[in-house]
């Protein structure tokens, strides 16, 4: 059969080109393939959605250049949800790259939602000290951050006038790839003060954080998949859903190749016998 010969001898360039298309096309034209919402993602959404308007969230935005594709989508989806609900966000970062990503990701979202810096959100910047630093800033924010990342005195920022320590914080949200970050926040925020914690993390950190759900971590997003589920809950398809469409379509293509070539090989053997 000529068709079998053509299938079994497809040029590598053609196979590779189709694979590239299955990966790249959904990035620009999302397909909106069905996605199941996990209990942890729904719990994350509910933790934000149930907060009264005006509640203050402390967000540790620990993105790095290596992790932005995996966890950034979930973080941005949560930020959009928080600000659209009228919640206030105080951004901090335990990584040296954190301030760069806060200033890159948050202003466009705030501008779309007509939210003002200093009133609806504040960026305090990088904090050092690991677990000790987290304990210190929850005890006295103004002592650790006398000024924000932009050089403004905290006393000049409307949002920070009544926030001195953990007592003004309703929720801690963590975006991270560090396997020790969420456990540190549990020990310093949830255990002593009872503050709820939600997070968006990479796959490795997710496996470590899962046992803490739902008692010490109220909700959790698992990397790109978690971000896509969150976007689906918000009915706002974005980069995460596009990314999952791309992954799903490329997997389907590889499976199709395996099935077709194996069937072709079987028929070829039958034809020759």
What is the CATH class name of the largest domain?
Answer: Alpha Beta
Helical/strand content category: alpha/beta
Strand order of the largest sheet: 3-2-1-4-5-6
State the helical fraction.
Answer: 40-55%
Can you write the helix and strand succession as a string?
HHHEHEHEHHEHEHEHH
Q: Could you give the distance between the termini?
A: 14 Å
The Cα radius of gyration reads 23 Å
Q: Give the DSSP E fraction (strand runs of 2 or more residues).
A: 5-15%
Overall number of strands = 6
Shape: elongated
Count of alpha/pi helices:
11
CATH topology of the largest domain: Rossmann fold
CATH architecture of the largest domain: 3-Layer(aba) Sandwich
Outline the low-pLDDT stretches. Answer: none
Largest sheet: 6 strands, parallel
The chain-level mean pLDDT equals 91
Give a quick rundown of the structure.
This protein is α/β, with parallel strands linked by helices. The protein has eleven helices and six strands.
Task: Give a structural overview.
Helix content is about 55%, strand content about 10%. It is built from eleven helices and six strands. A six-stranded parallel sheet has the order 3-2-1-4-5-6, with helices on both faces. α4 (about 70-85) packs across α5 (about 100-110). The longest helix is centred in the C-terminal third of the chain and has 34 residues, at about 240-270.
């Amino acid at each position: 059969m000529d068709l079998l010969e053509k299938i079994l001898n497809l040029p590598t360039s053609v196979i590779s080109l189709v694979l590239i298309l299955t990966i790249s096309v959904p990035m620009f034209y999302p397909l909106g393939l069905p996605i199941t919402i996990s209990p942890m993602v729904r719990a994350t959404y509910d933790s934000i959605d149930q907060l009264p308007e005006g509640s203050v969230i402390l967000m540790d935005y620990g993105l790095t250049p290596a992790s932005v594709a995996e966890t950034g989508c979930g973080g941005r989806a949560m930020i959009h949800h928080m600000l659209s609900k009228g919640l206030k966000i105080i951004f901090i970062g335990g990584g040296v790259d954190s301030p760069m990503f806060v200033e890159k990701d948050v202003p466009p979202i705030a501008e779309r939602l007509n939210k003002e810096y200093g009133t609806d959100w504040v960026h305090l910047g990088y904090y050092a000290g690991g677990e000790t630093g987290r304990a210190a800033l929850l005890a006295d924010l103004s002592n650790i951050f006398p000024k924000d990342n932009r050089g403004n005195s905290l006393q000049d920022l409307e949002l920070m006038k009544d926030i001195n320590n953990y007592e003004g914080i309703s929720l801690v949200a963590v975006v991270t790839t560090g396997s020790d970050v969420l456990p540190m926040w549990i020990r310093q925020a949830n255990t002593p003060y009872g503050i709820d914690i939600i997070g968006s993390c990479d796959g490795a950190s997710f496996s470590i954080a899962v046992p803490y759900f739902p008692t010490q971590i109220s909700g959790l997003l698992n990397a790109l998949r978690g971000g896509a589920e969150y976007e689906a809950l918000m009915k706002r398809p974005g980069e995460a859903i596009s990314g999952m469409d791309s992954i799903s379509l490329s997997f389907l293509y590889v499976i199709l190749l395996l099935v077709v070539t194996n069937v072709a090989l079987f028929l070829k053997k039958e034809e020759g016998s």
